[in-house]
């Protein structure tokens, strides 16, 4: 088997390198920065070690749990606190519909849907039940499907705030099959989008749609690094892999795997900023907005897209915080005086006064989220967020699958010309 060079040491690159090494390949991993893990990292704020990137993962298909089990982290998997999610809009905060998928409601005329989109918007969404199941089934994006089936009002007031808060993309920019695998098929079989959502929700395993890791999601990087080291992967930090004609410079005989964060043009990448506040505000003990709030696009008095009340969401973190509260706010672009703006946003979203003197510490980190890409490079295997979609479940699942396919192709014997025999002659 020819050796393999993996370019990019984020989670996708680490997962691919690990799976390839487990399959018997000789693997070299190149990372341009001085550390592995990419955006799945940590920082210390207010004396607490906190995730500076993802703090949870989707449970769909059991992809992440399977990897965590292999890495010995299964006992550390924890569920978030139960309770409704909230949406902040111009008229104030409201609870999001209980039975929904990325904001798409299973019951358009439910009271919690009407409270968000209004009576007219809910009735327009209800028309979904009267449309043929084939209508909109060929939609390319999530936004196109929702608009056709349930109307623009529901798209703008329910689905867009959820996808912008969770995936940092408007539904019009999200590939339908990538972001909601199975929804198109469920629509065709169930005959309406609402019934499709209900079917998907009912068939999902019991429990939370997301889970976390006690101590922080960043722990997955430590275990992946330990595993690839144990498996003999050669890791080279501060080493950029340059691709020329399908080969990495310096590795002409190697098969190539690229963690595709940089496949799309840099101008297509979206800058995300995370602001973290550690505060001493006893009024937050009651978790007035549960585990967090999404923000409706266009709200003028709030700069943030969403806030997570992390110590209300994760009991392990509340135990470590010893009465302090951790608030995580996400922004598309980092405004000036972010520490002040984040404090003001947090107070408005949670409905609790947060005086400047109550802020114990503040930190901000930024990264670029690549735009979805359909890029292909002959002879090169692509993994990572640009080709897999957002979230650990998508990234890990795609990297595992791509590595397995590459191993299969490399293990197939090359076809050779049969030897000539006397009968042939």
Topology readout:
Blueprint: E1 4-7, H1 11-22, E2 27-30, E3 42-45, E4 48-51, E5 57-58, H2 63-70, E6 77-78, E7 86-89, E8 92-95, E9 100-101, E10 104-105, H3 111-126, H4 142-150, H5 152-167, H6 176-179, H7 183-190, H8 193-203, E11 210-213, H9 219-230, E12 234-236, E13 243-244, E14 247-248, E15 255-259, E16 270-279, E17 292-295, E18 306-309, H10 310-313, H11 315-321, E19 325-331, H12 338-350, E20 359-369, E21 380-383, H13 385-388, H14 392-411
Helix pairs in contact: 1-9, 1-14, 3-5, 4-5, 7-8
Short description:
The chain has 425 residues and is of the alpha/beta class. It has helices at 11-22, 63-70, 111-126, 142-150, 152-167, 176-179, 183-190, 193-203, 219-230, 310-313, 315-321, 338-350, 385-388, 392-411; strands spanning 4-7, 27-30, 42-45, 48-51, 57-58, 77-78, 86-89, 92-95, 100-101, 104-105, 210-213, 234-236, 243-244, 247-248, 255-259, 270-279, 292-295, 306-309, 325-331, 359-369, 380-383. The chain is built from 14 helices and 21 strands.
